[in-house]
Amino acid sequence: MHTKQLDQYVGQEVTVKGWVANKRESKTVVFINLRDGRGICQCILGVEEIGEDLFAVAKSLGQESSIAVTGKVVADERQIGGYEIHATTVEVYQNAKDYPISNKEHGVDFLVDNRHLWLRSRRQWAIMRVRNAITYAIHNFFQAEGFVQMDAPIFTGNAAEGTTDLFETDYYGKPAYLTQSGQLYGEAMAMAMGKIYTFGPTFRAEKSKTRRHLSEFWMIEPEMAFCDIFENMDTIEAFLRAVVQEVIAKCPEELEVLGRDISKLETVAKPFPRLSYDEAVEILKGQTEVNGQNSLTVIQADLDAAIARQAECEAEIAEREAAIAAGGMKKGAINFNQNKIDSLKNEIKQLEEDQRNLPQWLASARDFTYGNDFGGSDETVLTRLFDLPIMVYDWPHEIKAFYMKRNPEDPRFARGVDVLAPEGYGEIVGGGERETSEEWLVEKIQEHKLPMDVFQWYLDLRRYGSVPHSGFGLGLERLVAWVCKLDHVRETIPFPRYYGRLEP
Ligand code: 4AD
Ligand code: MG
To answer: Which of 366, 381, 403 is the last residue of a domain?
Structure first.
C-alpha cells in the first residue's frame, strides 16, 4: 500500500508506511505529512481517535521519523496528493531526533555534504524521478529503433577524447585509464550489430568547477553503420524529441515540484535549427541576425533588464521592511513579508551575478577568434536567440578529436556535430561522422601524439569492411539539468563526483 494508490481506497482503512516529512500540531490534533517515496500524504492524528498515549508519541515525533499510519482515506482536493488519512493508530519504527536538514534554507555545501539525506527532500525526489524517466525513455527509443545495447569496458589502454583528462590507475602493474567514452568500442560493435548504444559511466579528470562538469558522469553513445553526419543529426533530433516528450508525459508532478515551465520543453516538437560552425560564429559575433534579432543586442538588453530589476527588488525590500518596522503587524503577516524579503534578496544575488557575467560574455562573444572552440559563455550567447536545441556541425578539424571524418568537399572541416540546449545549458550532445580512411586516421593519431600500438585494433575496423558510420554521445546529467532547469549538474546524480568532491 502506498500513497499513489489512495484513490482506490476512499472511505476504507489502510496502512501507509513512510517518514515524517513535516509536522504541525494543535492541542488535540497532530498533522503529519507522510513521505513514502512514491508521494506525500497528510495524516491527521486526533487525540480522540488514537488515544492519549499514542497522541503523546505522535507529538514527540521528529522530522524523518519512520512510522506506519493506519486510518481512513478521505478525498480532499486541497491536500497534497488529493487525499488524507484520518488515523486510528500509528506505529513507530524509529523516532528520529535532530534531523540536520530542516525546511529552512541551507547552503549548497552543507546540502552536498549531507547528500545521503538531502536525497529525501522534495526537489531531489523530483529530480531523481525525472532522471529515472529519462533513462527509461532512452532505452525505449533505442530498443524500438532496433539498436543493441552494449557495455563498453571501463578500464582502457587508450584515450578516446584526448590525453589531458584521463584518470590513470594501476592495472596489474601496467598503467590503465578509466574510460572517457565507449565510442571506439561502440564502433567495433556497430560493425558486428549494425546499430548499437552504450549506457555507462565515463570519467574525465577535469579540474574545472563549472556547473556543467562532473568527474564521473553517464553517457549514452549510439553508433550506426552506413550512416553519414546528416542521418546522424536526424537520429539525434528524433531521439531528443522522443525522450523529452516522454518525460513531459510521465512526470507532470515532478516537473511541477521543480517549477519547470513545460512550454520551454515542448518546443522540441519543432525542427532543430542546424548551423555550420561558420554560421554559428557569425551569429555569436552579432554579424548575422536570427529572426531579426542580434545576439549582442539581446545580451545587452538582458544586462539592462537585470540592472532595472535589481532596483525594483531593492525598492520592494525597503517598502516591506518599513511596513514591518512601523509595528502593529500580525505575526502571520510579518512572516509573509519576511519570506518575500528573503526571496527578493536571493533574486538580487542572482541578478548581481548576471551583472558580473553578462559584460564578460558580451566581450568574449564580440572578440571570439574564428577557429576556436566555443566556451561555455559563447554557447549561452549563441543559444540565447533560440528556444530549442540547435545543432552546430562542420567544425575546424584542428579542434576536434582524431577520429572525426573530414568533410570531403572542404577538408578544413571535420564532420562533428554538437547539440546546444537552450536556456543557457550549452552542449548536451557531441558526435559526428567517423573517419573511414586508415591513412588519414594514422596521420591524425600521430598529430595528436597518441600511441599507435594501442590503436591497432581500431585501425582493423578500417582494414576489414570499412563503411561510413556515425554516432554521438549524450551526457545524461546535462540533459537532466536542462529538463529540470537546475543551476548545477551536481543535483542530477545521486552521489556526484566532481573536482574536490568524493564524499559521501
Ligand atoms: O563531446 P564529448 O567529449 O564526446 C565524446 O565523448 C564522444 N566520444 C561521443 C560520441 O560521439 N560517441 O562528450 C559527449 C557529451 C557532451 O556533449 C556532454 O553532454 C557530456 O558528454 N560530457 C560531460 N558531462 C558532464 N561532465 C563532464 N565533464 C562531461 N564531459 C562531457
Ligand atoms: Mg564535446
So the answer is: 366
Q: According to the 3-state scheme, what is the secondary structure of 219-237?
A: EEEEEEECCCHHHHHHHHH
Q: Is residue 48 part of a domain?
A: yes
Mutate to test the pocket of ligand 1, among 198, 216, 217 (most ligand atoms within 8 A of CB): 217
- 3-class DSSP assignment, residue 333: helix
Give the number of domains in the chain. Answer: 3
Taking the C-alpha atoms of 267, 270, 276 and 281 in order, what is their torsion angle to the nearest 10 degrees? -30
| Predicted confidence (pLDDT) per residue in 347-367, tens digit | 999 999 999 999 999 999 999
Cell of 263: 512550454
Cell numbers for 119: 536525497
On whether both 86 and 73 belong to a single domain, the answer is: yes
Same domain, 252 and 330: no
Which residue range(s) make up the domain with 336?
A: 273-366
Residues 53 and 131 in one domain: no
Minimum-distance ligand to the CA of 202? 1
State pLDDT tens for residues 109-164.
999 999 999 999 999 999 999 999 999 999 999 999 999 999 999 999 887 777 78
For the residues 373-377, what does the mean pLDDT come to?
Answer: 94
If asked whether residues 262 and 410 sit together in one domain, one would say yes
The atom number, within ligand 1, closest to the CA of 222 reads: 12
Report which ligand 1 atom has the smallest distance to the Cα of 428: 19
CA-to-CA distance for 432 and 23, rounded, in angstroms?
A: 54
Query: What gap in Å lies between CA 210 and CA 477, rounded to an integer?
Result: 13
